[in-house]
Design brief:
- The complex is a heterotrimer.
- By secondary structure, chain A is mainly α.
- Helices cover 71% and strands 1% of the residues of chain A.
- Chain A contains 14 helices and one strand; from the N terminus they run ααααααααααααβαα.
- The two termini of chain A are 26 Å apart.
- By secondary structure, chain C is mainly alpha-helical.
- Chain C has a domain of 115 residues.
- Classes of the chains: A mainly alpha, B alpha+beta, C mainly alpha.
- The structure holds iron/sulfur cluster (2 copies).
């Protein structure tokens, strides 16, 4: 029986972990209520930095959600048995993280009580509304996909639904990237490059999350992940991380090419203070170069704990990257009158400051916890543990 | 509705008319062309496009008359927390990098004909009225702030805290986004926006309000005669607020 | 180890909890409908009759307000009869100068009893604007159109005189 994920002897520990995660979710909800009650004045967000830390968390979760599904797609669409065995877990993580991300996004709204309006009044021209549609269909398709993968009678359809999920996932991430791509007025965002960049980021973050969750599940069950599988996944992660690096370089190079963007690039790359540090140390050093070094190291790359470490660094780098893109992009003032120096009582022409507050952080981490909670409960009641018939895997690949 | 209700009120007709008229005119107010007045029961129409022309050469550094008038009219007051305080209109001081020439001018919602804030709004709360005025319908605004991200002029503000000192004509509250309404409640009563009125009252004459669709309006004539600019014209938003002298 | 039967029961429990939550969400609304017309509350009103039948207003005032709200907001139609401002002018509690600042006030009397949240005054002022002297806020649609005709048929001069008179009546009131 393969659903013996959490063995009886560890039941106590499981409920303890579940309780802790639940508390974090509650803290997030409490924070949202606090923000809603007092207004956003209690957060670090201002009329200059209008999207803050909650959005960094939400976007990370949504992007990673669509990326994690990649694991399942490789299995169903491209017919690799090793990934096929991981399909259900990937589908579950996708649903859980999307739910967590949307929770954060919704609870941060100025009028979170108007959720019904958000769903009933739709301006079809809006990329945001488009995203609401994309997310809803995503949930449905992934749920169907899970069903076809987990129910023997439905196996035959798995490939088709898997293909639909694969396409939809690309659309979803493109949509998330487009949220920024449409902001033509802002120097950090108005580029079509953001959509493909978000897709490749999603592959990288999603796989990293998957590898960590998988490692936790194996460890909990005292099982060892087959070396060949581990090897393949870490190589794939390395490829994705390198691809994100490539896109980052292209993004900044194209910006540098356009004269009007050089000020902004100077800000991010040279004298943006916290954003510059986050970029070079967070995103590039810790989030890209360090994991690449681990994943290609002849020795370390064979040790599962180091691989998990690398995946964690990728996630850390992902947060840094989104923080720089989102907050850093807003911190740099709008150029309303190009070629002139602006000043006003509304902070025109000045670098905007942002210091995230505790409620914002709690709300964001609450979303992560919500995703973890959904995953933990589902893994407990349904068989999500990957089951490999190792020799077959190797032969088929 | 029943007839006796009508009859019971008939005596108030005169008073009602007088009241409506009284609302139209307050002492010292410049009237727009009365022949064009739109009755209260008629919808705003696209035959008009309200706009503004701001002459920065007449706008003095340090003068804040328009900003003060706007705040008073719309109940937008400072709380002493400048980073979260909404600003519907602000004075911007400019200095040309090359020549060092300086300008001073008011900046507010430009009432774009192709408003990005309307395009991005997920619920349709941000919308453009038939006569070109861009507004936020706070009844369906969910406070996502996407419009603030999209506006190239930083014209929109999010209301970060509770207010209970609203002008009955200008509802506004916590959790929604707001911006210059071009004093739509005044325009509907045939009055000029408060900022324009204050600018004339102070004898600065830097702001002119009128119908861009009417070739004979003062504003259209001036735009046809002098070199005027739209801010960030490269974005091709066809702004309703135009500038002269920059 | 969880057997399929136990798994099913967990899922069933979850479903039950969810539907209970949904039901709880619906309950207050029905309660409000039943008690909307409770009689213990003293109504405050300046005029002798409301713009519609009282019974009708009890149940449908929100529909009227919502209709007017969209007309005014979206199209700039500013007829006064069904406007929230008109309601407030007439139903203001003289003691508090508001319709929603205390339980005694017109709106809150019923709304607290029925436990239905009023969202209006999050943004709208619950106080009347200093009224013009001699002006009754209630005008029926017929009167409205009559008034409009009269207004537009006035010669410029007469109009000016009326306005001047009105202005002098409103001295210092700051009517905008
Ligand atoms: S100036 Fe900004 S808020 Fe005003 S219409 Fe244009 S985009 Fe919208
Ligand atoms: S904040 Fe309100 S008006 Fe602005 S985009 Fe969101 S829903 Fe629309």
């Amino acid at each position: 029986m393969n659903n013996d994920v959490f063995r009886k002897s560890k039941d106590g520990a499981f409920y303890f972990v579940l309780g802790v995660i639940g508390l974090v979710v509650l803290a997030g909800l409490g924070a949202a209520y606090y923000m809603e009650h007092h207004g956003h004045v209690v957060t670090g967000m201002t009329n200059q930095i209008v999207w803050g830390l909650p959005h960094v968390f939400a976007i990370f979760l949504i992007v990673a959600a669509s990326g994690v599904l990649n694991v399942a797609s490789i299995g169903s669409v491209f017919g690799k048995p090793m990934y096929k065995a991981r399909g259900p877990l990937a589908g579950l993580l996708a649903i859980a993280m999307l739910a967590g991300g949307l929770m954060v996004l919704m609870l941060d709204l100025g009028r979170a009580d108007r959720l019904i309006i958000a769903m009933t009044y739709l301006n079809l021209k809006s990329v945001f509304a488009l995203n609401v549609f994309l997310y809803t269909v995503f949930f449905t398709v992934v749920a169907l996909y899970l069903w076809t993968m987990m129910d023997r009678k439905m196996h035959a359809y798995s490939k088709y639904v898997g293909f639909a999920a694969f396409i939809w996932r690309l659309a979803l991430t493109t949509g998330t990237g487009a949220i920024f791509g449409f902001l033509v007025a802002r120097q950090a965002y108005g580029t079509a490059l953001l959509a493909p960049m978000f897709i490749i980021m999603s592959f990288s973050f999603g796989l990293a999350v998957f590898m960590i969750v998988q490692a936790v599940m194996y460890r909990w069950n005292d099982r060892v992940l087959d070396e060949a599988i581990q090897h393949r996944m870490k190589n794939l992660l390395a490829v994705f991380v390198a691809a994100v690096l490539y896109f980052t370089v292209v993004y900044h190079m194209t910006n540098l090419y356009f004269a009007k963007q050089t000020d902004f690039e100077r800000f991010i790359l040279l004298d943006g203070g916290v954003y510059t540090n986050l970029f070079w140390f967070g995103q590039i050093l810790l989030g890209t170069l360090a994991p690449l070094a681990i994943l290609f190291h002849p020795d370390l790359s064979k040790r599962s704990s180091w691989i998990v470490m690398a995946a964690m660094l990728v996630i850390l780098g992902g947060f840094a990257q989104l923080y720089v893109l989102l907050i850093g992009g807003q911190a740099f003032p709008l150029s309303i009158f190009p070629g002139m120096v602006e000043s006003s009582s509304f902070f025109d022409g000045r670098i905007h400051t942002y210091s995230p507050s505790l409620p914002e952080f709690l709300l964001g981490i609450g979303g992560v916890a919500a995703a973890a909670l959904i995953t933990a409960i589902a893994v407990k009641v349904l068989p999500f543990m990957p089951e490999d018939k190792v020799h077959k895997v190797i032969a088929a690949d | 509705m029943s007839n006796d209700v009508d009859n019971s009120r008939r005596k108030f007709i005169a008073a009602g008319v007088a009241g409506t008229a009284g609302l139209v005119l307050a002492p010292g107010v410049t009237l727009l062309d009365m022949a064009n007045a739109r009755p209260a029961g008629e919808a705003a129409s696209s035959t008009k496009r309200w706009g503004m022309l701001i002459d920065s050469t007449k706008c003095a550094t340090g003068c804040n008359d328009c900003v003060t008038a706007c705040g008073k009219e719309n109940g937008v007051a400072s709380t002493g927390r400048p980073e979260t305080d909404p600003q519907w209109i602000r004075k911007i001081e400019l200095k040309e990098v090359k020549s060092g020439k300086s300008h001073s001018l008011p900046m507010m919602c430009q009432h774009c004909a192709e408003p990005p804030c309307v395009d991005v709004c997920p619920t349709g709360a941000s919308f453009k009225r038939a006569d070109g005025i861009v507004l936020v319908d706070r009844h369906i605004c969910i406070g996502c702030r996407y419009c603030m991200m999209a506006c190239p002029y930083k014209a929109r503000s999010f209301v970060h805290e509770e207010h209970d000192d609203q002008n009955p004509d200008v509802p506004r509250g916590k959790g929604c986004v707001e911006s210059c309404t071009l004093c739509v409640h005044r325009i509907d009563k045939d009055l000029e926006p408060a900022c324009v009125e204050a600018c004339s009252a102070g004898n600065h004459g830097a702001m002119l309000f009128g119908d861009l669709n009417d070739a004979n309006s003062e504003i259209s004539k001036r735009i046809a005669t002098y070199a005027t600019t739209q801010v960030r014209a490269d974005l091709a938003l066809n702004t309703g607020v135009r500038y002269q002298g920059i | 180890m969880i057997n399929p039967a136990k798994r099913r029961s967990v899922l069933g429990w979850l479903a039950a909890a969810l539907s209970a939550l949904l039901l709880a969400g619906v309950m207050p609304a029905t309660a409000a409908d039943e008690h909307g017309a409770h009689s213990g509350h003293k109504l405050i009103a300046k005029g002798d009759k409301c713009v519609r039948d009282e019974e009708y207003m009890r149940r449908n005032h929100m529909k009227i307000l919502k209709h007017q709200r969209d007309d005014t907001m979206r199209k700039g139609i500013r007829t006064t009869q069904d406007s929230l401002k008109n309601c407030i002018e007439c139903h203001v509690n003289p003691k508090t100068n508001s319709v929603a600042s205390s339980k005694e006030d017109f709106c809150m009397g019923c709304h607290t009893y029925a436990a239905v949240k009023v969202d209006c005054f999050e943004c709208h002022s619950s106080k009347p604007k200093a009224p013009a002297v001699g002006m009754n806020p209630i005008i029926t649609p017929e009167q409205q159109s009559e008034g409009k005709d009269k207004q537009s048929s006035l010669s410029g001069k007469m109009r000016w005189q009326m306005q001047a008179k009105q202005a002098s009546l409103n001295m210092g009131e700051g009517v905008k």
